[in-house]
Structures are given as C-alpha cells and as structure tokens.
C-alpha cells in the first residue's frame, strides 16, 4: 500500500506553508501525484447574497475579487511545492466552497491534507466547520496540519492513539505507508478493554499486526484515565518532541457527540503542534 494521489487544500499563505512543505515531502517520498485545490466560494456567496433581503446582487467586481484571490492562493501553492522539488503537479480551481468541494474531491485521492481547527470554541467559524465536515464525510484518510508546526518532512516518530476500536484500526491502516517509512512507532493504549479485553491483549495484537508489516512498535499502557483527559495526555506526549505525527481514529464519545468533534478529537485537533492523521 502507498499513497498514489495526495490532495492539499490551498488556502491563506500564512496558514498553509507548513502544509505545503509536508505534502511535498510525502509526495516526493512516495513518488506520487500531488494536487492542490483552491476554492473561491463564489457560488455560495452568490446564493447567500441572493437570499438575503436588502443586499444588492453580486456584481462582476465581487466575483472577480473572490476568484482572483483563489488564483493567487493556488499560485502560492505551486511556487511552494515546486521549490520543494515536486514536478509535475496538478492544480484545481473551483468556485465551490471548501466545505462542499473537499468531501467530494476526497473521493478521488488517497490522502487529504487540510488545516487545523484553531480554537475549540469556534464552533461557528469556517475553519472549525470545515474540519468537522471533512473528518466526518471524507472517504479517504485526512491529515490535519497545524499552521505553526515544525514538522515539514516525512514523519519518522509516529504516535498511535490505540483503543482497539474500528476507528482506530482504520486510522492505523490508513497510516501504513508512513508507519513503514518510520520503521519504529509508539502506540499508547487508552481503554482498549472496551473492544479488546485488556490493555495487554490489545497492545500485543497491535504489535503483532504492525510487525507483520515490518514495523517495530513500543506499546505504552498508561493508568486508566477519564475520557476527558485522554486528549490532554496525547498532546502531552506529542509536546515532548519525541513524536512528529499522531495517528488516531475519531473516538472518545458517542457518535452523536462526535458529530460536533466532541471530546478527544476536538481536544487533540485544537491543541496539537504536530500533524494528526485520522480516519472516520
């Protein structure tokens, strides 16, 4: 298994440079196609303006402003990844909004890189809504990359958040190309008894699976902790500098609460300083 097609959401340059460099590094290591997509949001803007009372219809200048901004964003992506050595590459420009287009485009790629949720209270902000929608609806693995991360090369010290669940298992499978390149990973087991009987059993089974793929693994079995503190524990492990990638499923609460990124998922995505690879 390898990533044959990688898609990057191109957005504001000040937020996306680390994302571009990391995507380029993975694409070069995998020898795969890299595509950047910029979304002007013009269609949604037109619809909203048309539906709002007392607002004049959108004119050519408004439309051109949105599309020109998206074009500049895409040009910045192209310059960044070419400077990193990625040639050839593909660029896409759409007038759809990111929240509508990315889940559809994700059907045709093996890995999607997007930006980070910037604040856990920003439930109505575009970045929060975008991340929430992508994590729920994208059929491919999603890597959330903090704008301030120092990780701009292929991760070599991954940390797996393991609870034995189907979501965690899918995330591990989705990360296999990166885990194999790392060669050695750390897995921390939280409440695996819910799915696997015991921490020891869950850790042993995961180690056996990863070893079959040529991956050495260190299993950490911390003392049982309330679900509300698991996210902080993961962030603490990543913040030590010992890890440069978190691999986790969308787990921690009921399906209904996860629809608003409740619990572990929200905590990690809002506070992480390293990329997070997840799969719903």
UniProtKB/TrEMBL annotation:
Stretch forming the signal peptide: none
CDD domains named in the record: USP-like (cd00293)
Domain UspA: 228-277
InterPro entries in the record: Universal_stress_UspA, UspA
Family: Belongs to the universal stress protein A family.
Protein name: Nucleotide-binding universal stress UspA family protein
Organism in which the protein naturally occurs: Massilia aurea
Phylogenetic placement of the source organism: Bacteria, Pseudomonadati, Pseudomonadota, Betaproteobacteria, Burkholderiales
